[in-house]
Specification:
Elements lengths: L1 H9 L9 H17 L1 H11 L10 H4 L6 H7 L2 H13 L4 E3 L2 E3 L2 H10 L2 H16 L12 H13 L8 H16 L3 H16 L8 E2 L2 E2 L8
Antiparallel strand pairs: 1-2, 3-4
Helix pairs in contact: 1-2, 2-3, 2-7, 3-6, 3-7, 3-8, 8-10, 10-11
Amino acid sequence: MLGSCAAQLMGEGQPSSYPRPLAAVTVLAPDRLRGQDPAAAELAGVCAFLAPEPVPPEWFPAAAAVLPVALAGPAADPVAWRQLLASLGRSALARVDSSGLLMHRLTQAIIRISLPPDQAEAARDLAEAVLAASQPGDTDIPGTWPAWARLLPHLLVLDLAATSNLDLRELARKEARYLIMRGDPRSSLDLASHLYQRWRDPLSRPVHHVDGEHVGLRLARY
């Protein structure tokens, strides 16, 4: 199981620079973390369904009202939250620094396939809920633009076309507005057109993804 899982991931277009022994160790790390610190493991599960770009730690305290008990308690206590982040950092599943929570895309893939289907669905739903609660503010105010830029890659990696989270849909609409205000109307049109077609016709074919991004969405990197 361990060898085949690591080999499968390494054979599915994952970065060739990621050492095979390290991939094999990473397969075991989520189970080990679940035994040592269930809250940190739950946080890792959420990050696995976001983008490999930095995840602002403050998103979780801001979303405390929608978090499960294991995360809501620490998120509401600054000291406990720092301890939880440190626990996740020690697990080597993610790096925690001044830029935020960083998780390698291979680590994300390993965590996703290691979760039972019901837990994977719950982690994906929680990732959507955390993003939906992370409204940066008025898109017409330039001071909010850096926060909207940090949000964008994480929003795009989710299956926005299929989500039933209405708050997340509203966030996506505002993200398109942000792109217009920032001076990127083409990317805004691509995003809005894609979502309009899927939300209008939920029975249309599934969206295909390449490395976590929607095909045909030409959205700039930030």
